[in-house]
Amino acid sequence: MKIEFFRHSLDTAAIEAATEGLRKTFLTLSEANRQFESEFATYLNVRHAVTTNSCTAALQLSLQLLDINASDVVITTPLSFVATASSILLAGGNVTFVDVDAATGLIDLDLVEAAITARTRAIVPVHLYGQMADMRRLRAIADRAGIAVVEDAAHAVEAERDGVRPGQLGATAAFSFQATKSLTCGEGGALVTNSDAIAARARRLRNLGVDRTAAERYGGMYRPWDMVELGGKFSMTDFQAAMLLPQLKSVEVRRARRAAIWRRYTDAFAGTVATPSVCGADNHSASHLFTIWVRPEVRGAILGELAEAGIGVGVHYQPIHLTRFFRERFGYRDGAFPHAERIGASTISLPCYPALRDDDVDYVIETVLDAVAAHPAAGEAAVVGR
Ligand SMILES: *Cc1c(COP(=O)(O)O)cnc(C)c1O
Questions:
Q1: Count of CB atoms within 10 A of residue 188's CB?
Q2: Taking the model in full, what pTM does it have?
């Protein structure tokens, strides 16, 4: 592979922080976790952050905090990673998908509003590719219905829209520190919230429902502990939290580099290759994934040509409802969510990470333009709804 789809940016500072973390007495849920939680909450301008071992766990915890049960429904988008919908099922609820906006791929808020029933307990929007959903409008919709918003912010650590950051209007927002995300410790995550009660209970629920962590129990004199409710085991190790700390300090530098790559792509493809829209003036995308749309009939051929040229690409996403599990368990068929399906069949994600050089980006651009030119109307017809 000449140009990998993704390469992480872990530097000496992050690697040394992890090594130092391994020399500590307490390897989990201790000082580095507390420090990262505090700095992450400050960075996002929210009251609390609670680390977890994945974004999936943070989403599941967020829904468990609502005491969801088997008669409850949570509304979400089919155009996401399976984790978004799986976390709803793992928390014991039912999933209602609604289709996405044709131009952005974000969950369609008109359809969300229309889908709310007496059984609906929450909405899980996904801040897709780094662009936030319209949280002001979504919060108003949720408030009218008396239900919660849990944000899947796995792509959106650095995003802001209409003056709102992830976690500021939702009951919680969930983040991923998995290998391909902007901040990474291999596998990890966090939820953030402005609610003291949610944060306190999330800390307990991530640690088997026990009211003290091991570090709190054994630091100094032995202190008794109790299990007060049924919880999972979702905690993050301290050496992972330690390696996230230096990355958080440079997160804006890396976002700026991705935004520059994003602009280079956007300028080069303007008028030739369709891309999702970023809407509204006061909308700062985290520029997490750069995707193009090509005609579904030629997508396979173009994926082949990019691979041949040594360029790693991704597909974000094959819609969740068309996976074998969701088809077999819930009876979903092709055509259920046409915009999500159209985007899923058209989309190609291009390399977009800080370690890319400008000439790497130019090589990707040339290769894509050549591939698109080789297939009649490959770029144009991809624009959904046009
Ligand atoms: C990566 C990702 C997740 C899951 O994150 P994990 O930390 O791997 O559990 C959830 N939603 C979206 C949109 C993602 O990209």
A1: 27
A2: 0.96
